[in-house]
Amino acid sequence: MDKLIDDIPFGEGYVACRDRMMLVLFYEAGLRLSELVGLDVEDVDMQSSAIKVLGKRNKQRVIPFAAELKRELAGYIEERAAFAQCPTGALFLSAKGGRISNSRVYRIVNARLAGVTTLKKKSPHVLRHSFATAMLNHEAEIGAVKELLGHERLATTEIYTHLTFEELKKSYVKAHPRAGNN
Question: Which of the residues 32, 52, 99, 104 is marked catalytic?
Fold first, then answer.
Protein backbone atom coordinates (compact mmCIF):
# COMPACT_ATOMS: atom_id res chain seq x y z
CA MET A 1 0.00 0.00 0.00
CA ASP A 2 2.85 2.37 0.76
CA LYS A 3 4.28 1.77 -2.72
CA LEU A 4 0.87 2.38 -4.31
CA ILE A 5 0.14 5.58 -2.42
CA ASP A 6 3.60 7.06 -1.86
CA ASP A 7 5.98 5.76 -4.51
CA ILE A 8 4.05 5.61 -7.77
CA PRO A 9 3.66 9.04 -9.41
CA PHE A 10 0.09 10.08 -10.13
CA GLY A 11 0.85 13.13 -12.24
CA GLU A 12 -0.51 16.66 -11.98
CA GLY A 13 -3.95 18.23 -12.04
CA TYR A 14 -7.35 17.41 -10.67
CA VAL A 15 -7.74 13.90 -12.12
CA ALA A 16 -4.38 12.73 -10.73
CA CYS A 17 -5.18 14.29 -7.33
CA ARG A 18 -8.64 12.67 -7.37
CA ASP A 19 -7.31 9.23 -8.26
CA ARG A 20 -4.78 9.30 -5.44
CA MET A 21 -7.34 10.60 -2.94
CA MET A 22 -9.78 7.82 -3.82
CA LEU A 23 -7.12 5.15 -3.24
CA VAL A 24 -6.10 6.77 0.04
CA LEU A 25 -9.71 6.88 1.27
CA PHE A 26 -10.38 3.27 0.30
CA TYR A 27 -7.36 2.18 2.28
CA GLU A 28 -7.46 4.58 5.22
CA ALA A 29 -11.23 4.52 5.79
CA GLY A 30 -12.17 1.01 4.59
CA LEU A 31 -14.90 2.29 2.31
CA ARG A 32 -17.02 0.25 -0.08
CA LEU A 33 -17.08 1.34 -3.73
CA SER A 34 -20.65 2.64 -3.53
CA GLU A 35 -19.85 4.51 -0.30
CA LEU A 36 -16.91 6.34 -1.86
CA VAL A 37 -18.85 7.24 -5.01
CA GLY A 38 -21.80 8.45 -2.91
CA LEU A 39 -19.72 10.84 -0.78
CA ASP A 40 -20.52 14.54 -0.96
CA VAL A 41 -18.19 17.35 0.09
CA GLU A 42 -20.48 18.07 3.04
CA ASP A 43 -19.92 14.51 4.33
CA VAL A 44 -16.33 15.42 5.18
CA ASP A 45 -16.30 17.20 8.54
CA MET A 46 -12.89 18.84 8.87
CA GLN A 47 -13.79 20.27 12.28
CA SER A 48 -14.31 16.88 13.89
CA SER A 49 -12.01 14.95 11.50
CA ALA A 50 -14.73 12.53 10.46
CA ILE A 51 -16.47 11.31 7.32
CA LYS A 52 -20.19 10.50 7.30
CA VAL A 53 -20.75 7.45 5.13
CA LEU A 54 -24.04 6.06 3.87
CA GLY A 55 -23.56 2.30 3.82
CA LYS A 56 -25.61 -0.75 2.99
CA ARG A 57 -29.31 -0.57 3.78
CA ASN A 58 -28.97 3.23 4.11
CA LYS A 59 -27.17 2.90 7.43
CA GLN A 60 -25.04 5.90 8.24
CA ARG A 61 -21.75 5.58 10.07
CA VAL A 62 -19.06 8.04 11.01
CA ILE A 63 -15.42 7.23 10.29
CA PRO A 64 -12.74 9.26 12.07
CA PHE A 65 -9.54 10.26 10.34
CA ALA A 66 -6.10 11.38 11.50
CA ALA A 67 -4.19 14.63 10.92
CA GLU A 68 -2.29 13.44 7.81
CA LEU A 69 -5.49 12.41 6.03
CA LYS A 70 -7.07 15.70 7.14
CA ARG A 71 -4.30 17.62 5.36
CA GLU A 72 -4.63 15.48 2.25
CA LEU A 73 -8.41 15.88 2.17
CA ALA A 74 -8.12 19.65 2.60
CA GLY A 75 -5.68 19.80 -0.33
CA TYR A 76 -7.93 17.60 -2.44
CA ILE A 77 -11.06 19.64 -1.68
CA GLU A 78 -9.18 22.78 -2.65
CA GLU A 79 -8.09 21.17 -5.95
CA ARG A 80 -11.65 19.95 -6.52
CA ALA A 81 -13.10 23.42 -5.95
CA ALA A 82 -10.73 24.89 -8.54
CA PHE A 83 -11.75 22.16 -11.02
CA ALA A 84 -15.53 22.08 -10.46
CA GLN A 85 -17.46 23.76 -13.27
CA CYS A 86 -20.99 23.13 -12.04
CA PRO A 87 -22.49 23.20 -8.56
CA THR A 88 -22.49 19.49 -7.67
CA GLY A 89 -22.00 18.26 -4.13
CA ALA A 90 -20.18 15.09 -5.17
CA LEU A 91 -16.78 14.72 -3.49
CA PHE A 92 -15.32 12.86 -6.46
CA LEU A 93 -15.96 14.24 -9.93
CA SER A 94 -15.55 12.75 -13.36
CA ALA A 95 -13.33 14.50 -15.90
CA LYS A 96 -16.53 16.17 -17.18
CA GLY A 97 -17.47 17.52 -13.75
CA GLY A 98 -20.32 15.22 -12.70
CA ARG A 99 -20.27 12.56 -9.98
CA ILE A 100 -17.77 9.84 -10.90
CA SER A 101 -19.30 6.43 -11.69
CA ASN A 102 -18.73 3.14 -9.89
CA SER A 103 -17.35 1.58 -13.07
CA ARG A 104 -14.85 4.42 -13.62
CA VAL A 105 -13.58 4.14 -10.02
CA TYR A 106 -13.26 0.37 -10.41
CA ARG A 107 -11.18 0.79 -13.59
CA ILE A 108 -8.93 3.38 -11.89
CA VAL A 109 -8.31 1.12 -8.89
CA ASN A 110 -7.71 -1.90 -11.11
CA ALA A 111 -5.17 -0.03 -13.24
CA ARG A 112 -3.34 1.41 -10.23
CA LEU A 113 -3.18 -1.92 -8.42
CA ALA A 114 -1.90 -3.59 -11.60
CA GLY A 115 1.19 -1.40 -11.29
CA VAL A 116 2.10 -2.68 -7.82
CA THR A 117 0.75 -6.22 -7.39
CA THR A 118 0.37 -9.52 -9.20
CA LEU A 119 -2.83 -10.41 -7.32
CA LYS A 120 -5.55 -11.66 -9.64
CA LYS A 121 -8.23 -9.54 -8.01
CA LYS A 122 -7.52 -5.81 -8.26
CA SER A 123 -10.64 -4.08 -6.99
CA PRO A 124 -11.71 -1.46 -4.46
CA HIS A 125 -12.68 -4.33 -2.17
CA VAL A 126 -9.01 -5.40 -2.07
CA LEU A 127 -8.23 -1.99 -0.55
CA ARG A 128 -11.06 -2.39 1.97
CA HIS A 129 -9.67 -5.82 2.83
CA SER A 130 -6.19 -4.27 3.22
CA PHE A 131 -7.65 -1.66 5.60
CA ALA A 132 -9.23 -4.34 7.81
CA THR A 133 -6.13 -6.52 7.80
CA ALA A 134 -3.84 -3.59 8.63
CA MET A 135 -6.09 -2.54 11.51
CA LEU A 136 -6.19 -6.06 12.94
CA ASN A 137 -2.45 -6.58 12.44
CA HIS A 138 -1.85 -3.40 14.44
CA GLU A 139 -3.94 -4.66 17.35
CA ALA A 140 -7.26 -2.94 16.69
CA GLU A 141 -10.12 -4.65 18.47
CA ILE A 142 -12.25 -6.66 16.07
CA GLY A 143 -15.40 -4.92 17.36
CA ALA A 144 -13.95 -1.54 16.42
CA VAL A 145 -13.02 -2.82 12.95
CA LYS A 146 -16.57 -4.16 12.60
CA GLU A 147 -17.98 -0.70 13.32
CA LEU A 148 -15.54 1.06 10.98
CA LEU A 149 -16.42 -1.32 8.15
CA GLY A 150 -20.15 -1.00 8.82
CA HIS A 151 -20.71 -4.73 9.23
CA GLU A 152 -23.95 -5.92 10.83
CA ARG A 153 -22.44 -9.08 12.28
CA LEU A 154 -19.07 -9.81 13.86
CA ALA A 155 -18.86 -13.01 11.79
CA THR A 156 -18.58 -10.88 8.64
CA THR A 157 -15.58 -9.04 10.08
CA GLU A 158 -13.98 -12.27 11.27
CA ILE A 159 -13.39 -13.19 7.62
CA TYR A 160 -10.52 -10.68 7.71
CA THR A 161 -8.83 -12.38 10.67
CA HIS A 162 -7.42 -15.28 8.61
CA LEU A 163 -4.58 -13.11 7.31
CA THR A 164 -3.96 -11.78 10.78
CA PHE A 165 -3.73 -15.36 12.04
CA GLU A 166 -1.19 -16.15 9.30
CA GLU A 167 0.92 -13.18 10.45
CA LEU A 168 0.66 -14.39 14.04
CA LYS A 169 1.72 -17.88 12.96
CA LYS A 170 4.78 -16.52 11.11
CA SER A 171 5.79 -14.52 14.17
CA TYR A 172 5.40 -17.57 16.35
CA VAL A 173 7.47 -19.81 14.09
CA LYS A 174 10.14 -17.13 13.74
CA ALA A 175 10.38 -16.24 17.43
CA HIS A 176 9.65 -19.36 19.47
CA PRO A 177 12.76 -21.46 20.08
CA ARG A 178 10.94 -24.78 19.65
CA ALA A 179 8.68 -23.81 16.74
CA GLY A 180 11.25 -24.20 13.96
CA ASN A 181 10.87 -27.99 13.76
CA ASN A 182 7.07 -28.07 13.56
Answer: 32
pLDDT tens across 66-87, in order?
A: 899 999 999 999 999 999 877 7
Catalytic residue among 27, 122, 129, 160: 160
Active site residue 178: no
Residue 149 located in a structural domain: yes
Residue 56 annotated among the catalytic residues of the structure = yes
Q: Is 162 a catalytic residue?
A: no
146 lies in which domain range? 2-175
- Assess if residue 29 is contained within a domain: yes
- Residue 139 dihedral angles phi and psi, to the nearest 5°: 70, 25
Give 115-133 pLDDT, tens digit per residue: 666 667 777 888 888 888 8
Catalytic member of 3, 56, 59, 170 = 56
172 assigned to active site = no
Give the domain CATH number at 125.
1.10.443.10
Of 3 and 106, the structure prediction assigns the larger pLDDT to 106
Half-sphere exposure of 103 (CA within 13 A, CB side): 0
In angstroms, the CA 63 to CA 54 distance is 11
pLDDT at residue 19 in the model: 94
Opening angle at CA 117, ends 101 and 142, nearest 5? 75
Domain count, the chain: 1
Say what the pLDDT of residue 43 is: 97
71 as an active site residue: the answer is: no
Q: Is 107 a catalytic residue?
A: no
